[in-house]
């Protein structure tokens, strides 16, 4: 697996969930980190300090707002100033909103496209010159099963994730001879605290047991009837950073329990 000692990774949306798992996996391989995301300041500091304590790396926090291109560029610049380079970029920040298309609030559409898609473009744009100059880099975008298939009432999210898949391919082709790879990971339903917290309300609203909510609602689309774990997603990202994955670029790697095989 990848040995990333001396490398620096910027991971957006990394204060919890999949993003934090990415950060921990990369730190475990020796990478220094710029973490980013929303949350309580004390909780964020606890996670940042924990990365340093647990893995013996240096981790700094950027409060960059993924709606603001200038702040995304400054987040990358922070990594370059602090560590001398940004070698790995993981675009993971994302939000969701569910509504029929005719009622979809315009401001929600704009925010989802900005955070789930455009922020990845701005981050990539900022890291590519340094990666090309050094002849090595890894860009990993968190997509979704919804980069390959659609679900009703998620027009902005599905559009953004399809866009991430296309952006990934385009960047991979542009950087194909540079030593820089660009790939996306498309998880299905991942077991996170956010998902877990939804279960009691769904049980009450639908008069279902916990097992029925998990199997008949949350995992309806996943043939394995098992959640993906954040650690599994992070381990795939770590593999993509390895020399063994140097010829994997422009790929959309599904990790969805068979959802998109149907």
Automatic annotation (TrEMBL):
It comes from the Bacteria. SUPFAM superfamilies: NAD(P)-binding Rossmann-fold domains (SSF51735). NCBIfam families: PHB_DH, PRK12429.1. GO terms for biological process: monocarboxylic acid metabolic process. This is 3-hydroxybutyrate dehydrogenase. PROSITE patterns: ADH_SHORT. GO terms for molecular function: 3-hydroxybutyrate dehydrogenase activity. Signal peptide: none annotated. Belongs to the short-chain dehydrogenases/reductases (SDR) family. InterPro entries: 3-OHbutyrate_DH, NAD(P)-bd_dom_sf, Sc_DH/Rdtase_CS, SDR, SDR_fam. Pfam families: adh_short_C2.
